[in-house]
Design a protein that fits this description.
The chain is an alpha+beta fold. It is 24% helix and 35% strand. It contains 6 helices and 14 strands. It has helices at residues 69-79, 147-158, 162-167, 190-204, 221-230, 243-252, and strands spanning 23-31, 37-45, 48-54, 57-64, 89-94, 100-105, 111-117, 126-131, 171-177, 180-187, 211-215, 234-237, 255-261, 264-267. A 6-stranded mixed β-sheet has the order 5-6-3-4-8-7, with no helix packed on it. A 6-stranded mixed β-sheet has the order 10-9-11-12-13-14. α6 links the parallel β12 (234-237) and β13 (255-261). The chain starts with 22 loop residues before the first strand and ends with a strand.
Amino acid sequence: MTSDLTQDNTTSESNKYDINDSVEALGVTALYPDGKKEKKETAVISEHNLNVLVNEKDVYRLVCTKDNLKELVIGRLLTDGIIETMDDIFKIVFCRYDEEASVFLKKDISWEDRIEVTPTCCTGNKTYASSKVKSVLKKLPEYKWKPEWVFKLAEEFKKGSKLHNMTSGNHIAILAVEGEIQFICEDIGRHNAVDKAVGYALMKGIPLSRAMLFTSGRVPVDMVEKVISAGIPVLVSKSVPTKESVEMAGEYGLNLICRAWPDRCEIY
């Protein structure tokens, strides 16, 4: 069998995403220190629920924004160690309303049932089953990065995005190779945004071993583990790491750069 993921193997229109699918205008009352009240409308993000089946097994319930769903699914499969390359996937089919994705792999998976929530995930993503064959983190090869690449990512993040400018309620991930930006994505959850960037790289044949990833979110252990699993050697964040994530980054050779702004950054 050969995969055909260069085409949109779906029954949905997910590749024709409209940002309005992720935004709802709600009425609010703005209250000021002087006691003044003002009636107004504000835009908020809508949560989209996506159930993911792998070889007809319920594996994930992802709470996300309704864009780049195929990238999200593929990236999550890679960072969880279920696939290693795009060639492991035969087909992905989305239902009409993009509420369910069915992934068909070229290999059989032995599953173990569990219900798990990613500890620092802010959206309530759930894992219902995982492969009995556990993936092992591998030490990343040495990678020479340049400071100007980091500051370029920080400048790009500073520009914001349409969804963030409308709602201030999403995270952004930026994928770059040697300073050249390849992809920018956003999601209600920072883990989802990273998975979307990883999935895009796999779909486009971008070598993750030469990539840098910028995230707008903080960097706990599970985020560092996700990036190491993807084989990305440089993780940049506008936010901060934890002690444990710094230790893990050092153990596996991940270049961890945080508090990254256009005028400064901190190297751990």
